[in-house]
Amino acid sequence: MADESSSEDKTEQPTGRRLEQAREEGQVPQSRELSTFLVVMTGVATLWALGGWMAERMYRLIRKGFTFEREAAFDHTLLLERLHDLLGGALFTLAPLFLALLVAAVASPILLGGLVFSPKALGFKFERMNPIKGLGRMFSTHGLMEMVKAILKALIVGGVASMALWSLRDHIFDFMTQPLEVSMPDFMSTVAFTSLLIASSLGLLALLDVPFQLYQYQKKLRMTKEEVKRENKEQEGDPHVKGRIRAIQREMARNRMMAAVPQADVVVTNPTHFSVALKYDPEKMGAPVVLAKGRGELALKIREIAKENDVPLLEAPPLARALYTHCELEQAIPAALYTAVAEVMAYIYQLNNWVGGGGPKPEAPVDLQVPEGMDPGSPD
């Protein structure tokens, strides 16, 4: 009962990871009926394509086998050589058929389950030797279905073969009265036709069995809601661990940003809520780049570092808010802010000249124009 309730709880479709694990363990959908159909159909196709050539060679081998000189009847060495030649000729004649059947037998499982090599599936498992579990599999629903399929296969294939042979009974008996060179090609054609009918009946079974096997495979790998949640957590990671990792990443990015503030040409402030550090190198940059930005305590820290390293501060609330909102770290400012930032950089250039002892002290720009829609407004 516990197993049944557990099976009923498995209502969720298998995840990609579950399917991957099943393949690693060698569990892939398989259909014996599809494999049987492909092997038989391959044999039929080979007989249709090479039946005339094979019949001619077999005719020659049979004539050669029943024709020998008097000396060969009393010399076992010659008999063995003749037997060797006949067997070699027969194997060479049947080799294309055997090769085609081998390729079909190897390739047919790949059509449904794909190419899989699983060392785990080759490992020894003691539970496979457990007779109790073996009996359980025999009397399980799967075992019952396999028995029904076997009976159905025997009825269909046996019925088709019986009807084909019965309808061709007079033709088959005629082979006994025909010369060998005439009956052999006719016999090969009859075998190919009968095999085609049998293969067609196997194809009908394969059409019924493949969807059933795919359904059983998916049903076997179904998962409970808890298993899906647990697997998603394993795939995505523990939320607490991920949160801690993100916090560490933010801290590292913040430290890198703060280390870049001393390299800035100017820090534009709100003056208390926002701070944005800008740098412009005409030889390397097409436009000024944001080295650091922050709000609240982080903005105060940026201004503090700027003062310690003699980086000029400029109060321009609308521009500071626009830069903070629309600019990314280590990225150039948007084109819409070029004019306002150009005035700031011109002021910084004049300020540096004045500090170096040249010219009058410049006036800080006021009322810098920010395009409409760029300023998110004062947070006050």
Feature tags:
transmembrane; 2 domains; 380 residues; 4 strands; membrane; 4-stranded mixed sheet; T3SS_substrate_exporter; cell projection; 15 helices; name from scop; mainly alpha
SSE map:
Layout: H1 2-9, H2 16-24, H3 32-65, H4 70-73, H5 76-113, H6 119-122, H7 131-138, H8 141-167, H9 169-174, H10 180-220, H11 225-236, H12 239-260, E1 266-269, E2 274-279, E3 289-295, H13 297-308, E4 313-315, H14 317-326, H15 338-355
Your description of this structure?
Residues 7-26 have a biased composition (Basic and acidic residues). It is found in: Cell membrane. The two termini are 66 Å apart. The chain is mainly alpha-helical. The radius of gyration is 42 Å and the shape is elongated. It has two domains: 16-234, no CATH class; 257-357, secretion proteins EscU (name from scop), CATH 3.40.1690. A four-stranded mixed beta sheet has the order 3-2-1-4, sandwiched between helices. Helix 3 packs antiparallel against helix 5 (76-113), helix 3 packs antiparallel against helix 10 (180-220) and helix 8 (141-167) packs antiparallel against helix 10. The protein contains 15 helices and four strands.
